[in-house]
Each structure stands twice: as structure tokens, then as C-alpha cells.
Amino acid sequence: MKTDAVVGFVVSLLCATSVSADDASPPGAYDRLHGESSIGTSAPTRQQMVNAIKNATPTRLYATLEYGERVECFECIPGLTEKLLSSNDAEVREISAWWLRRRSFGFGPVMVKMQQVAREDTDPVRRARAASALGEFLDPHGAETLSSLARADADVTVRVAAVRALGRLNTLSVRAGLSSALHDTDPQVRLAALQQVLKVNFFDDMDSLLGLLGDSDVQVRNLAVQLSGELRLTAASDALLGILMTDDSVRVRQAAAIALGHIGGVDAGDALSDAMTVEKDSAVQDAISIARRMR
To answer: What domains, with CATH codes, occur in the chain?
Structure first.
């Protein structure tokens, strides 16, 4: 009786842990759902990782590094460090930074190298990639370097990369850098800074955000309008009404209507009613109708 019970338990356990034909992966396949439990897969050896870094396709490198997350491979560090700066594939750079930041030993020199490249390299592409890596490292020690780049680097692409990396860090020490970027002379940098507002949990520079409601760039202006609504900034109501009545962009006027709907209140309601009487574009009229129902 006891033997039958044991056999039954083993059979039920095997059934519970088995993989259906639909879920099973062919031997050696890269399967993000099952990871190292995929059929025919296991953590790679150090030599396999070195070989993948040198020769593998981006997809195979991604798989090898993911499966090798816990493999301590000191020989892998120089190759992946170089990929952070030389690879034209953004996913390769991202997975390289992801693996490197998990190294208890060996990560410090990589961090120092990226900071040095970001500050001193004459090639703006390498500086921008180093800035992105500092963001992907998620190490607050990179905040000072990134803030400096966001404020003062001569190349727009570097400043944009630095701003995005600041948002990736999401730490109080990057607040000043993001606020400064909202006043950058280039609209690409201002737009990148606005794109970080809802990604960080400490943004409080509402005056700078409100100032961008009148920005000369339509993308910057549109996003500033959207954020004013999503953050329910009542101080933006008058400016939003002006935008809804006069802005040249249909898209911006639509965003202003929805933003007023988010903010709500009597003033917003009156503004939407007034705008409906003069608006000629049907798409904006639809947005106003939706916004009035949001109150």
C-alpha cells in the first residue's frame, strides 16, 4: 500500500512538472519564458561566453549572457566593455551593461572607464554610448558625470543620451540635471528631459514645465501640455485655454482640451465650452467633447 502511494506521488509530480508539447522548446533554443529550464539549455561555460562575445549574433549573445548571468567570467569583461562603446546594436549594448553591472568583482573599473570616456573622449558617438551605459548601470555614482554632460557637452546627441540616462537612474541626485535640461537651447534635449518627468519619482520643477507650454517646438509644446494635464496642474489652466483657442497645431489643441479635462473644475469647464463655440477642426471638437465628459 505504501509502495503504491509512493509511485502515485512520483507520477503526479512528474505530470505536474512536465512541459506540454506547445510550451516545449527545441534543444538549445533561446526561450525567455523558461530560461535555464528550457530543454537542452544550461548556464554556458566561460569559454562559451568568451566565444559568444567575440563571434555570436546579437540574438545568440543576448541568450548567452542571460543564461550566464551568474557565471563569473573575468575574461568576458573587456570584450563586453568594448561592446558598450563600439556596437551599433542598441540591444547588444543594453545586455552588455546589464551583465556587467551584476559583477561583484570587476564592475568598478568598468564604471570608471565609462565615466572617463563620457568626459574626455573626442568622439561624440562614444561619449553618448558611455552616457547610456552609465544610465544602464543604475549606479548613482554616475549622476555627477551625467548631469555635467547634460548641461555642458557640445554635442546634442550626447546631451540627449545623458538626460535619458539621468531618468534611468531615477535618484534625487539627478534632479538638478533634469531641470537644467528643460532650459536647453536645443528642442531635442528639452523633449528628452520632458520624457523623463513621469519616469522619475521626485520631479517638482513645475515652473519649468509650465514655461514649456509656450515652447517654439511643437513636440516639446505638445508633451508639456500633456504632462500638465496628467499632473493636474491647475496653474496651467489659463495657458491651456490660450493654447486651445489659438495654437496652430491641431495635435496641440487636442492635447490642451484633454489636459483641461484632466484638470477639471469650473474654470476648465467654462474654457472647454468657450472653445467649442469657435473651434472649426472636427478632431479638436471631438477632443473637447471627450474632455467635457471627463469632468
So the answer is: 33-105 (no CATH), 132-204 (1.25.10.10), 210-295 (1.25.10.10)
CA pseudo-torsion sign 56, 62, 66, 70: positive
Grid cell locating 264 = 477639471
Burial class (CB in 10 A: 0-12, 13-18, 19+), 173: middle
Instruction: Copy the grid coordinates of residue 19.
Output: 512541459
* CB contact at 8 A, 292 and 269: yes
C-alpha span between 180 and 182 (Å, rounded): 5
- The pTM of the full predicted model, rounded to 2 decimals, is 0.82
- Helix ranges (DSSP H) in the chain: 2-17, 46-55, 58-67, 76-86, 90-100, 107-120, 124-136, 143-152, 156-169, 175-181, 187-194, 206-211, 218-230, 237-246, 250-263, 265-278, 282-294
CA 229, 232, 236, 240 torsion-angle sign = positive
Joined grid coordinates for residue 232: 493636474
Give the C-alpha separation, 135 to 112, whole Å.
13
pLDDT tens digits for range 222-269: 999 999 999 999 999 999 999 999 999 999 999 999 999 999 877 777
